[in-house]
Amino acid sequence: MSPLPKTGGARVLIIGATSAIARETAQVYAASGARLFLTGRNGGRLASVRDDLLVRGAAQVETAELEVTQIASHRSVVDAAVGSLGGLDIALIAHGTLPDQTRCQEEVSATLDAIQINFTATVALLTLLANYFEAQRRGCIAVIGSVAGDRGRQSNYVYGAAKGGLDRFLQGLRNRLYRSGVAVVTIKPGLVETPMTSGMPKTPLFASARRVGRSIERAIENRRNVVYIPWYWRPVMAVIRWVPESIFKRLQL
Ligand SMILES: NC(=O)c1ccc[n+]([C@@H]2O[C@H](COP(=O)([O-])OP(=O)(O)OC[C@H]3O[C@@H](n4cnc5c(N)ncnc54)[C@H](OP(=O)(O)O)[C@@H]3O)[C@@H](O)[C@H]2O)c1
Questions:
Q1: Does 4 have pLDDT greater than 60?
Q2: What counts of helices (H) and strands (E) characterise the chain?
Q3: What is the pTM for the complete model shown?
Q4: What ranges do the domains of the chain cover?
Q5: I want to staple 13 with a disulfide (CB 3.0 to 4.6 A). Which of 60, 91, 128, 248 is the partner?
Q6: Is 228 a catalytic residue?
Q7: Is the Cβ atom of 216 under 6 angstroms away from ligand 1?
Q8: How many Cβ atoms are within 10 Å of 245's Cβ, its own excluded?
Q9: Out of 29, 132, 157, 159, which one is annotated catalytic?
Q10: Are 147 and 237 in contact (CB under 8 A)?
Q11: How confident is the model at residue 227 (pLDDT cuts 50, 70, 90)?
Q12: Mutation test of ligand 1: which of 27, 95, 147, 159 has the most ligand atoms closer than 8 Å to its C-beta?
């Protein structure tokens, strides 16, 4: 596999760049002089992320508004990123929503919205990005999934299904792109302190967005396949996956 340029010279596309976790990852890239193309659905928030990254040392920061469910607009945004950075070394997909599980059970539209944002839109973006990187024969695609995708639980199985489907899609993509020298990194954070989890009571299992953001940059640099962040979620999820379904279905999880 051809090596990625060191973080400092990297040209990085970040989808969902206003996410707390993505912002922390972007700050690591900015500090080493990377060139970034950021997308987000809120122009004001996007501009403030851009200004912050420029102050932190990014060599170039471009932005484009993107509501990820507007799938027809994906191609022009990817083309704009490639055009304005002169190519891409890394694409990080970070957008996501944590839907209200009870509402999803009551309203079909809430379930389908959650699947559209967390799975369908991401798959659509990955299809374009995979073809770009495959033709280039180098680079890295990284996607933020979740430990929630490792096993369906009654308290969040709509979100879990979207992230689980993404996990399987990325497995196949990694297998396909290996021969082209393109890395595919599946990132599985556990509980992270961000606006997404602001309504949850905080426990010692929560990690800071800063810790997770830095770990994501390292995972990309090291071309990891699947990374649990923090590390302790790997054994925790191994145990959770191991519990037989005949027992698991009785648990209140
Ligand atoms: N926080 C956790 O505990 C945790 C755990 C595991 C995995 N994750 C995953 O980590 C990723 C980042 O989440 P976060 O924790 O950093 O939460 P966050 O700060 O709430 O970020 C979520 C991001 O997704 C964007 N987004 C949501 N719907 C969108 C849409 N339809 N079109 C475009 N952008 C959209 C939001 O844009 P706006 O800024 O416009 O709202 C925001 O940038 C997500 O994929 C999430 O599923 C989070």
A1: no
A2: 10, 9
A3: 0.97
A4: 7-248
A5: 91
A6: no
A7: no
A8: 9
A9: 159
A10: yes
A11: very high
A12: 95
